[in-house]
């Protein structure tokens, strides 16, 4: 009988260890997709807020949102015609994003920016800088970079900016407690 | 703690986050908590209404003792004791 109990305890310990290993971490995984000013503001506020709450943050920038990470002062070399056209049409950096609603040829976006200043809401540029200081991890979708024709040398100097694929996002999301697609 | 008691608290460190909106005060509190020792009292000044809800949740999560808030005309004083 004691042997049986010992075996059962060992079995339970093994199961607990496995459960602990599969437990999601105190981590949030955010997909930044839209590239709209309002939505990216929300994403960055949540990301920085999460760091204040001691939560690890993994952001995955893909599709339209990758344009937000372009540095307006830099240019990419060796682009073909299509890439050049895309590069010209897409916003060059976070300050060029537009509202998803009420843009009204840019008037709405300008009005929002005035309001944000008045109400002391941090700009997207400020939030990006804060995120870098707080250790918000930003990963960029390599495929989106390629598709939009963005070159690495034209991207922001963000600490530890990494270029990854969907597998990395999934691995991060798999171990995160919170998942957002913005 | 009662509002009267809170008003008479002498904080070891005061963070003035009145110039920022969400998530400014929370970020300021998080930054400042590293400046004080365990058991010391921190006071956060915020003009952002949401902070009154956010700071207690933050304290609850990271383990500091939330003492309460006192409303003034144009801003709020929030108090906590570092764990």
Q: What this model shows, in words?
A:
The complex is a heterodimer of chains A (182) and B (83). Chain A is α/β, with parallel strands linked by helices and 182 residues long. Chain A has one domain (26-72, 79-181): DsrEFH-like (Hypothetical Protein Ychn, Chain: A), CATH 3.40.1260. In chain A, 47% of the residues lie in helices and 15% in strands. Chain A contains seven helices and five strands; from the N terminus they run αβαβαααβαβαβ. Chain A has helices at 2-22, 37-52, 81-89, 107-118, 124-134, 142-148, 166-174, and strands at 25-32, 56-61, 137-141, 162-164, 176-181. A five-stranded parallel sheet of chain A has the order 4-3-2-1-5, with helices on both faces. In chain A, helix 2 (37-52) packs parallel to helix 5 (124-134). Chain B has 83 residues and is an alpha+beta fold. Chain B has one domain. Chain B is 31% helix and 28% strand. Chain B has three helices and four strands; from the N terminus they run H-E-H-E-H-E-E. Chain B has a four-stranded mixed sheet. In chain B, helix 2 links the parallel strand 1 and strand 2. The radius of gyration of chain B is 11 Å and the shape is globular. The two termini of chain B are 18 Å apart.
Unreliable segments of chain A (pLDDT under 50, ≥5 consecutive)? none
In percent, how helical is the residue content of chain B? 25-40%
Radius of gyration of chain B over alpha carbons? 11 Å
Mean pLDDT across all residues of chain B, rounded? 92
Q: What spatial form of chain B do the alpha-carbon principal axes imply? A: globular
Beta strand % of chain A: 15-25%
Q: Tell me the structural class of chain B.
A: alpha+beta
Helix and strand succession of chain A?
HEHEHHHEHEHE
Looking at how many chains there are and whether they match, the oligomeric state comes to heterodimer
Helix content of chain A: 40-55%
Can you list the strand order of the major beta sheet of chain B?
A: 1-2-4-3
